[in-house]
Every structure is written in structure tokens, then in C-alpha cells.
Amino acid sequence: MAAPGQINAAGSGISLGGIGGVPSFEREEEKITISKEVFDNIYYGMTYEQVTGMIGGPGEVISEKNDGGGQQSSIMYLYHGNTNGSSAIFSFKGGVLKLKTQMGLE
């Protein structure tokens, strides 16, 4: 049973809630995807900020390593592609792009 002011659409994955009986809608975040055209225009040596600006937002962190001793950290980000099953991975060291790879982007 839903709490007062909430509607639970069982099995639908939708949750409507609100305060004082006024419904509010929870929306899933829009997924950021990457195309082959954008991938091809991203170059080694670009900063993390430049890359995320071209793609439209941050990716999913899949690996993070701090080299210790004051060294720069390495972070790998995954972006889902614009077609089913496609993706791109970008690796940064000290905030600078060092590696990029993609699979199935169109």
C-alpha cells in the first residue's frame, strides 16, 4: 500500500509521489550517448573537461587508480554508444586523454 500522497504503480517501475496529495514525478536521468562522429573528433591530449563538453556530460567511472607518491591519478570512463551494444572508453591521466577505444559506434 502506498503512503498518503503517493501512488505505487506496481510492476510498472513508475513511482509517483507528492506532498499534500499533489503528485510529483520522478524522471530518470537522460542517458548520455556518443556517436562515431563525436568519438572521431576527440583527440589525445584533450582535457577531461574538453571531452565531456564534446560528448555532453560525464561518463561512468569504470576504473580509478592513484599512482601514489604525489603522482597523477588515472581514470577510465565508459560511455554508451548511440546504437545497441556500442560503447566508448576514454582513459585520462592527470586529467589529460591518454587512451580511447570504441566498439560498434555509428
List the helices and strands and how they pair.
Layout lengths: L6 E3 L4 E6 L2 E4 L7 E2 L1 H5 L7 H8 L4 E7 L6 E9 L5 E7 L2 E8 L3
Parallel strand pairs: 4-6
Antiparallel strand pairs: 1-2, 2-3, 5-6, 6-7, 7-8
**Annotated CATH topology of the largest domain:** Beta-lactamase Inhibitory Protein, Chain:B, domain 1
Would you list the SSEs in sequence order as H and E? EEEEHHEEEE
The CATH architecture name of the largest domain reads 2-Layer Sandwich
Strand tally is 8
Q: What profile does the largest beta sheet have?
A: 5 strands, mixed
Structure class: mainly beta
Q: Name the shape in a single word.
A: elongated
CATH classification, class level of the largest domain: Alpha Beta
Proportion of residues in helical segments: 10-25%
Write down the Rg: 19 Å
Q: What fraction of the residues are assigned to beta strands by DSSP?
A: 35-45%
Name the descriptors.
Beta-lactamase Inhibitory Protein, Chain:B, domain 1, 5-stranded mixed beta sheet, 106 residues, mainly beta, 3-stranded antiparallel beta sheet
